[in-house]
Amino acid sequence: MLLRQLEYLAALAREGHFGRAAEACDVSQPALSAGIRKLETELGVQIVQRAQRFEGFTPEGTEVLRWARHVLAEREQLKRTLESRRGGLSGVLRIGAIPTALSVAALLTTPMRRRYPLVRFSLRSMSSREIVSGLNDFDIDVGMTYVDGEPLGRVRVVPLYRERYMFLTADGGELAGQRSITWAQAAAAPLCLLPPVMQNRRILDGYFAEAGAVAEPVVEADTVSAIYAHVASMRLSSVIPHAWLHGYGVPDGARVIPLPPPERTYHVGLVLAGGGPEPLLARALVDIARQVDLPHELEQVASRITHG
């Protein structure tokens, strides 16, 4: 059994197509297919469901794929360990972050880059469920997501900060002159919110329900930039995490109003795969996170904006 054959499997799972998987592995399609068939012969099981095109993995193949990803992650971990002994940490740290935490990531990646100038970062916007799947499949090294809400499975958790919420609204709007509003008032406003596939939206819907209200957004968008753009252009409102103020501030022609703290609030934190090797770069990010006072940093910005 060769590591190259395991790379073929991982690429096929990622690309979902024999031709694209071969291209990603820099081999011909016949070479990739032959490598997988040889692996099937060696293991004595059918791994891939074949027809005119790739149709997925057999149950046995799914188990082989899980094992292959684990082996490849072990190899990458060994490679990085040896590289760190030769000349310090290097490589790409793959981070999956929920949209509400994307801007906060810079508070960790910036000091990490200063300490380890050879490290690079790949930051992806993902839902909380996609983050868990990405960790299990070794597609990302660390996630930034809610850590005390919906089940995360077998992961290691490092809490970072507790999220609180602000009402973002266009100047001159019906609620813009108020110093505070209720969750029921927020739900009744013309809103632009994240879609229900995002855990943040499911959390907000829970808060609205506790206030006896249901929000029916005018616009649903899955990026912060799109939400801010619609608040400005359509003169809508939104309910935003206070962490957004650090990275994005308040758009021109809008203001933020504090919302009352709900009975239950949620922590955003780092999550790492609970089994298998812990990537050196992910471990380094955790060390940085323990030295940065994120709650203080975020509260400073929110306080300056709301009281300034």
Keywords:
single chain; 308 residues; alpha/beta; Arc Repressor Mutant, subunit A; D-Maltodextrin-Binding Protein, domain 2; 3 domains; 5-stranded mixed sheet; 3-stranded antiparallel sheet; 12 helices; 12 strands; 20% strand
Quick structural summary:
By secondary structure, the protein is an alpha/beta fold. It has helices at 3-15, 18-24, 29-43, 59-87, 106-115, 128-136, 183-188, 199-210, 224-233, 244-248, 280-291, 294-307; strands spanning 48-50, 54-57, 91-97, 119-125, 142-146, 155-163, 165-170, 192-193, 219-220, 237-241, 254-258, 266-273.
Detailed description of the structure:
With 308 residues, this protein is an alpha/beta fold. The chain has three domains: 3-72, Winged helix-like DNA-binding domain superfamily/Winged helix DNA-binding domain (Arc Repressor Mutant, subunit A); 91-160 and 269-298, Periplasmic binding protein-like II (D-Maltodextrin-Binding Protein, domain 2), CATH 3.40.190; 165-258, D-Maltodextrin-Binding Protein, domain 2 (3-Layer(aba) Sandwich). Helix content is 46%, strand content 20%. The protein is built from twelve helices and twelve strands. It has helices at 3-15, 18-24, 29-43, 59-87, 106-115, 128-136, 183-188, 199-210, 224-233, 244-248, 280-291, 294-307, and strands at 48-50, 54-57, 91-97, 119-125, 142-146, 155-163, 165-170, 192-193, 219-220, 237-241, 254-258, 266-273. A five-stranded mixed sheet has the order 4-3-5-12-6, with helices on both faces. Helix 8 (199-210) links the parallel strand 8 and strand 9 (219-220). Helix 2 (18-24) crosses helix 3 (29-43) and helix 5 (106-115) crosses helix 11. It is elongated and about 70 Å long. The mean pLDDT is 87.
